[in-house]
């Protein structure tokens, strides 16, 4: 036997047993006539001890062992005199009698311990060393557990895992595709899937009823902390269901994961229409762990001669409890915050409801305390509170205030990182108008069904007002997944493509296979896809999905360990017909 136990396994009850362990040297230290080695493997750390008096040759050999050497050690389990309560094996040590170096190691470029001295770049370059650290190990184990538990739940509900192809066809909708040149079909390209959307719908046409896949997807987008060019989805689709069947099924998945992975019983999944989310939170992925909802002030604040408000489409505000004593500097910081391009407001108006009951605002010139009283009343503000107001174009102003709300939530410590508050956002708009290209885009994707009652509006009315039968699962302000009931009728799908500005020919060219399939008995169906990396990150309490992916790419989309992307040889290019 190569080893009898792992490095995380032995306890006081094993004392006296002869064991063999194998692993990496984490630390090597001398104390008088003794040499101690912390031996590490995936399961933990066990202390090895060598005694100069008992076996000088072996002890000398042990002293030569460098960090990250791979060794095998045989000896007897003994109770430690100096116990370490912080590790499960801390009561024992191994008095080594036999030692074998399985492989030496260079001195690692950074220390492989919980607190490492390695910078980001260095750790990415030596990712296999970084992955030896507890933090990364913990994240990957969490990911594994969530994958297993997702599979358990979905299998228990009769979902079957089916693989769909990675080499597919490029379509102009959605994000940019990664493309792969075809050697056998010179001048032609495959695309890597942005999602298995059309395939999973075809599986419904094929009668598989309930499909899922934990699947890699590829999108050639600019990267942010929560984006990777390749990422993983839990992709699901089901037949003969309406929206509520789908939401209930996947609420079940979320509950199962909360329970089995985090040991938490999260039961409340409110459903909030998109419009309400935008109105109350200025976001389609509201963080509902705290209140501070948005209130409209048009009727109270227009017509008092303040031109900015009089000209604004929308005036909205929030109350920050207990902040009336904010200093000039603090208020300036908030103004700078809302003016950042990512937030996009032009200025910030405040009303201080002072602890002594007096009222002071940044627009005192235009509003008397009497004018401002009703404003404080709609907010149910108390002395000591601060009201923050933004005005301008309706959509932009709402989302800017949504940004300020989050900022205030953080500043005031209203957001408890240990609490999970999921919700479904439903009834998204079906289409989004793009000024630049002067056309509609599907807010979700072109296969999303409009709400039944909005179909006449889509056919004859204002397409902007049509609501989709689409939904997102949001947890703590992060969009964890999204899906929709699908169109399963060829005529409606054709109408949708028309609204998206496709000619019949273009639609047939790109999605003919799907529309044809709809002529062979497509069942009513719908589904959802969850961003698995994000979900794991939220459960792990992390900030970046990169920390929960074994081999992630950096901000420039590069893998610095294998140095990719990279050039290819002239010969390869020739073969592929690329100049
Ligand atoms: N395919 C969609 C996406 O990737 C999800 C879905 O509609 O099921 O966002």
Describe this structure in words.
- By secondary structure, the chain is of the alpha+beta class.
- It has helices at 56-63, 120-125, 127-130, 134-156, 197-205, 243-262, 274-281, 298-301, 307-311, 328-339, 369-378, 394-411, 455-460, 490-499, 504-517, 532-539, 570-576; strands at residues 18-31, 34-41, 44-51, 70-79, 92-103, 160-161, 179-181, 189-191, 210-218, 230-239, 271-273, 295-296, 314-320, 349-353, 359-361, 386-392, 422-426, 431-434, 439-442, 470-475, 478-485, 525-531.
- Helix 4 packs across helix 16 (532-539) and helix 14 (490-499) runs antiparallel to helix 15.
- It has three domains: 12-103, Nucleic acid-binding proteins (OB fold (Dihydrolipoamide Acetyltransferase, E2P), Beta Barrel); 136-272 and 421-549, Bira Bifunctional Protein, Domain 2 (BirA Bifunctional Protein, domain 2); 290-411, 2-Layer Sandwich (Gyrase A, domain 2), CATH 3.30.1360.30.
- The mean pLDDT is 96.
- The protein starts with 17 loop residues before the first strand and ends with a helix.
- Strands 6-9-10-22-21-20-17-11 form an eight-stranded mixed beta sheet, with helices on both faces.
- The longest helix is centred in the first third of the chain and has 23 residues, at 134-156.
- The structure holds aspartic acid.
- Aspartic acid binds at residues 195, 197, 445, 482-484, 527-529.
């Amino acid at each position: 036997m190569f080893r009898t136990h792992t490095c995380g396994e032995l306890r006081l009850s094993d004392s006296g047993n002869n064991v063999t362990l194998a692993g990496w040297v984490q630390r090597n230290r001398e104390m008088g006539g003794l040499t101690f080695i912390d031996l590490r493997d995936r399961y933990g750390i066990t202390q090895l001890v060598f005694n100069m008096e008992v076996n000088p040759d072996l002890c000398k050999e042990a002293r030569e062992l460098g960090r990250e050497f791979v060794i095998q050690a045989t000896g007897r389990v003994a109770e430690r005199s100096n116990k370490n309560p912080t590790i499960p094996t801390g009561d024992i040590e191994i008095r080594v009698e036999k030692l074998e170096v399985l492989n030496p190691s260079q001195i690692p470029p950074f220390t492989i311990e919980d607190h490492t001295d390695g910078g980001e770049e260095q750790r990415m370059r030596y990712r296999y060393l970084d992955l030896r650290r507890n933090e990364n190990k913990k994240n990957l184990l969490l990911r594994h557990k969530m994958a297993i538990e997702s599979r358990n739940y979905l299998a228990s509900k009769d979902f079957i895992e089916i693989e769909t192809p990675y080499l597919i066809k490029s379509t102009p909708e959605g994000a940019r595709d990664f493309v792969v040149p075809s050697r056998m079909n010179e001048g032609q390209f495959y695309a890597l899937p942005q999602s298995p959307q059309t395939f999973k719908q075809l599986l419904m046409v094929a009668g598989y009823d309930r499909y899922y896949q934990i699947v890699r997807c590829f999108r050639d987008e600019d990267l942010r902390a929560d984006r990777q060019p390749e990422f993983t989805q839990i992709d699901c689709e089901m037949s003969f269901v309406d929206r509520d069947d789908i939401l209930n099924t996947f609420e079940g998945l979320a509950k199962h994961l909360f329970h089995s992975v985090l040991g938490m019983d999260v039961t409340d999944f409110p459903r909030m229409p998109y419009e309400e989310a935008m109105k109350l939170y200025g976001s389609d992925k509201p963080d509902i762990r705290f209140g501070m909802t948005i209130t409209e002030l048009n009727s109270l604040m227009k017509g008092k001669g303040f031109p900015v408000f009089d000209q604004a489409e929308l005036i909205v505000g929030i109350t920050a409890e207990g902040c009336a004593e904010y200093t000039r500097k603090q208020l300036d910081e908030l103004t700078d915050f809302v003016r950042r391009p990512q937030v996009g407001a032009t200025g910030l108006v405040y009303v201080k409801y002072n602890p002594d009951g007096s009222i002071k605002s940044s627009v005192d010139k235009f509003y008397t305390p009497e004018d401002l009283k009703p404003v404080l009343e709609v907010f149910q503000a108390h002395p000591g509170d601060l009201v923050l107001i933004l005005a301008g174009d309706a959509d932009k102003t709402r989302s800017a205030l949504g940004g300020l709300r989050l900022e205030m939530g953080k500043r005031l410590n209203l957001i408890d990182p240990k609490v999970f508050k999921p919700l479904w956002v439903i009834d998204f708009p079906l289409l989004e108008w793009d000024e630049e290209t002067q056309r509609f885009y599907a807010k979700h994707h072109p296969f999303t069904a409009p709400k039944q009652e909005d179909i006449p509006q889509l056919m004859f009315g204002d397409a902007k007002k049509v609501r989709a039968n689409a939904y997102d699962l949001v947890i703590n302000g992060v969009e964890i997944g999204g899906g929709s009931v699908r169109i399963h009728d060829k005529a409606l799908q054709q109408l949708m493509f028309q609204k998206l500005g496709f000619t019949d020919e273009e639609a047939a060219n790109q999605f003919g296979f799907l529309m044809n399939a709809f002529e062979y008995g497509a069942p009513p169906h719908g589904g959802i896809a969850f961003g698995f990396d994000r979900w794991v990150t939220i459960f792990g309490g992390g900030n970046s999905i990169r920390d929960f992916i074994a081999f992630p790419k950096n901000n420039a989309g590069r893998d610095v360990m294998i140095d990719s992307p990279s050039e290819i040889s002239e010969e390869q290019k020739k073969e592929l017909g690329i100049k």
